[in-house]
Amino acid sequence: MSEFAPIFIYLGFSLLVSLILVGLPFLFFANSSTYPEKLSAYECGFDPFGDARSRFDIRFYLVSILFIIFDLEVTFFFPWAISLNKIDLFGFWSMMAFLLILTIGFLYEWKRGALDWE
Amino acid sequence: MIIDTTEVQTINSFSTSGFFKEVYGLIWIIPILTLILEITIGVLVIVWLEREISAAIQQRIGPEYAGPLGILQAIADGTKLLLKEDLLPSRGDIRLFSVGPSIAVISVLLSYLVIPFGYRLVLADLGIGVFLWIAISSIAPIGLLMSGYGSNNKYSFSGGLRAAAQSISYEIPLTLCVLSISLRLEIGRNDQVVLPYDSDLDSSTVDIVEAQSKYGFWGWNLWRQPIGFLVFLISSLAECERLPFDLPEAEEELVAGYQTEYSGIKYALFYLASYLNLLVSSLFVTVLYLGGWNFSIPYIPIPELFRINQMAGIFGMTIVIFITLAKAYLFLFISITTRWTLPRMRIDQLLNLGWKFLLPISLGNLLLTTSSQLVSL
Question: Where are the transmembrane segments (chain B) (predicted)?
Answer without folding.
Answer: 23-49, 94-115, 121-146, 268-291, 311-336, 357-375
